[in-house]
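Q: Structure tokens for this one, please.
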Amino acid sequence: MKFSFLLSMVCMFLVLALLPMNAKAQQGNIPALPTALQELVDRGAQMRFLGRANGMDGWVAIYQGQENYYYVTPDGTGFLMGVLFDKEGSMVTMEQVAALQKEGGEVLDFLAADKPAEDLTKTMQATNEAFQYKTPAERMFAEVENSNWIQMGDEKAPVIYSFMDPQCPHCHEFMKDMKSAYIERGLIQLRMIPVGFREETLAQAAFLLASADAENRWYNHLDGVVGALPAKQDINTQGIQKNLALMQSWNFDATPITVYRDKTGKVKIIRGRASNLANILTDISS
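A: Here is the predicted structure, written as tokens:
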């Protein structure tokens, strides 16, 4: 935890309307998560209860290595985003996070380390506009665009999406084909949609989705680095479950599955390891 990061949060207090509380029953001393915060969990954020302080329930959300802190108001009608100080000027949030880590918040320790400076609001922003789709292909592509994905490569390069399981050998070979020839040369931006078909890979995919350095961790995993993608049992997998549901809804039954829009606007799907990446590049290059 970097003190400078916490101080930068002081100016970020925002009062937001609080949606009705989640109907899920409270477990022990942990209150039910507000529905508004549940939306972050659905995007793959790791949520941990910080405890109650100054009459407010505190939560920390970690997504792609970035932390945000939330405090539910005592009357339950709103919440604050930012760090909490007591009347003496002591930083309550820092004390709460330290206490959480002492309790064995292993996932918190992993995911909070080495945070990049990206704007979390941008990475967590969901698209809620209503669209009219002319074809099932357009509807499918819009759902793929709004899935929980990880960017690899130049953000200005033409985009392809690919569903991948961390332990899928064909996915590994596909990534090796892509990495040096296309991604690192800035020719293609690959947006990996992590999924997991087994308990272990489900946890690994969730860890990857929440990590600050997901691209490097993925490459290290491909290189056989032990522990690059730990399968933590206490990690939230809802973001990955959403990706799996998307696959199932469109009968995508194997990995990798690659989806992209060609330069004419047509949506294309490749099942399995792509045999001709040069054709894909030609397809998407303007």
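A few notes: The first strand starts at residue 15 and ends at 17. Residues 1-27, 109-133 have pLDDT under 50 and may be disordered.
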